[in-house]
Specification:
Radius of gyration: 19 Å
Helix content: 25-40%
Strand order of the largest sheet: 1-2-6-5-4-3-7
Structural class: alpha/beta
Order of helices and strands: HHHHHEEEHEHEHEHEH
Largest sheet: 7 strands, mixed
Strand content: 5-15%
Length: 238
């Protein structure tokens, strides 16, 4: 599944179709490009990449990076994959993980808000999470590791002994924003850093709405602490 995920233009829906149609999945790599193009309704240029996907330089390089950065890989067929996320439209077939948390235990709640949060907003975020920790110590706080409310939520979770999960909009080879590298290390020890993007992916603008769907998809509820009416936080809530 990872080899397929690295093929540009294939995407989640087609990967789900492959898993559904080819059993065991390894048989897809023995099909002719012409038949794959017809069965999966994909461009022949994409179909030509499938039989060689597991022997490609891209795949070999990705496996080395996964090892070098100490990452784990979850695919959607594994029991450890977040059950709630499977219900999301176009849920990522692959999740890259660094840390140690059971995504299917506890009460996952997303916290989102402005990167330019006010002192009041950060303080309210702290109070809300403190109260959540008192009511249910199995609460898991999910956010996006951005500056402002995201950072306040992760820090409050750590302060009050809750697990916290940071969903990144780029690969796990580098932390964005760089100001949160130390925070990211703390999250690894009491939660996890996760992303759908290959290890060396840059956090480009189009990735952030995709990241937001994972925060909402993994959560049983989303709290907007403070944000503008048009913002990533409002997209996540939607």
């Amino acid at each position: 599944i990872l080899a397929l995920w690295l093929i540009p233009g294939l995407g989640p829906r087609r990967i789900y179709r492959i898993v559904d149609q080819f059993k065991p999945i390894e048989t897809v790599f023995r099909e002719s490009p012409a038949r794959l193009s017809d069965q999966l309704r994909i461009d022949i240029s994409i179909a030509h990449q499938i039989p060689h996907a597991r022997e490609s330089k891209v795949f070999d390089r990705e496996l080395k990076l996964i090892s070098d950065f100490g990452l784990d890989i979850l695919d959607f067929t594994q029991a450890e994959y977040p059950v709630l996320l499977k219900e999301t439209v176009n849920a990522p077939p692959i999740m890259y993980v660094r840390g140690n948390v059971d995504f299917n235990l506890g009460l996952p709640i997303g916290f989102v808000g402005s990167r330019k949060a006010s002192f009041y907003g950060k303080n309210m975020c702290h109070k809300l999470i403190k109260r959540m920790a008192q009511i249910n110590p199995n609460t898991i706080i999910l956010s996006g590791l951005a500056l402002g409310i995201d950072s306040a939520a992760h820090k409050a979770a750590l302060d009050f002994g809750l697990k916290t999960v940071a969903v990144l909009a780029g690969g796990l080879s580098s932390i964005y924003p760089t100001q949160n590298r130390n925070l990211a290390k703390s999250i690894e020890t009491n939660g996890a850093l996760i992303t759908e993007f290959p290890v060396k992916s840059k956090p480009i603008a189009i990735n952030f709405p995709l990241r937001n769907r994972i925060i909402s998809g993994m959560s049983k509820g989303v709290v907007i602490v403070e944000s503008g009416s048009r913002s990533g936080a409002s997209i996540t809530a939607g």
